[in-house]
Amino acid sequence: MSNPNPKRKGNKWLALTGIPIQMGAIVFLFAWGGKWLDAKYPNKHDAYVKVLTLVGVGIAFYNLNRQLKEINKIDDQQ
To answer: Which residues cross the membrane (predicted)?
Structure first.
C-alpha cells in the first residue's frame, strides 16, 4: 500500500507497447483500402493506394501524438 506507482508504470509500458500495433493496423487498413479502390477504379499511377497510405500514416502519427500527450499528462500528475 505504500507505493501505487509500480502499477501505473506497468500501465504506461503496456500502453506504449500497443502503439506500434495500432499504427501498423491503421496504415495497413488504409493501404488495403487504396489497393481495393485501385482495383475497382484503375488508373495508371495507382493514386488511391499512394494517397490513402499517406493519409493512414498521417492519422497514425496524429494518434501517436495524442496518446503520448495523454500518457505524459497522466505521468506529470503523479
So the answer is: 12-32, 47-64
